[in-house]
Write a structure and sequence with these properties.
Elements: H1 9-18, E1 23-27, H2 33-38, E2 46-51, H3 55-59, H4 62-65, E3 68-71, E4 84-89, H5 97-110, E5 113-119, H6 142-148, E6 153-156, E7 160-166
Parallel strand pairs: 1-2, 1-4, 2-3, 4-5
Antiparallel strand pairs: 5-7, 6-7
């Protein structure tokens, strides 16, 4: 579904408020939850979303929530600027594990900050709103994701885990 779990949202907004990046890249924004939660907290930043399912752009008015809307599969898209925060909010479970790991590793090389949110309990899901990309392809555990983001601040909820990784300069 193009929404995210509620547990830990305050944890997310606290970290957004501490960020000083100049660009936020929201991958798989769905209904634009993270723009709604945090755009006012990082008002100076350029907000970009990368959405794979074009009908969501109009359905969820993404053009009104982001400065730039890119319709692309993030696995094939690479045009990130310097000093960026990439939000993988409830999107990595929609990919095969190897693809998700490759994305995380790629962005650990260039991102200033990485945010990840994934279900940490089995949550089978198929297509929604005609979007096959909504299908869950991997069930993550809290420890599995934590091992990919060593040193990240984390939140372990009942349904969802959240991680905030910052590059050390």
């Amino acid at each position: 579904m193009p929404t995210s779990a509620y547990d830990g949202r305050r944890w997310v907004t606290d970290r957004l408020a501490d960020s000083h990046v100049t660009t936020v890249v929201d991958v798989g924004p769905g209904e634009g939850t993270y723009s709604t939660l945090g755009r006012h907290l990082i008002w100076w930043a350029t907000w970009i979303c990368v959405e794979v399912f074009e009908p969501y752009v109009e359905r969820f008015l993404l053009g009104q929530k982001y400065d730039q809307v890119i319709v692309a599969d993030v696995r094939d898209w690479w045009a990130v600027p310097d000093d960026y925060l990439i939000l993988f909010g409830d999107v990595l479970e929609h990919m095969e594990r190897d693809d998700a790991v490759a994305l995380i590793e790629r962005h650990k090389e260039t991102a200033t900050e990485i945010y990840v949110s994934v279900p940490i309990v089995p949550s089978p899901q198929g297509p929604c709103y005609g979007n096959d990309h909504e299908t869950h392809l991997h069930d993550w555990t809290f420890d599995e994701m934590s091992s990919l983001l060593p040193g990240a601040d984390s939140f372990q909820g009942v349904q969802v885990g959240r991680w905030w990784w910052r590059r050390e300069f």
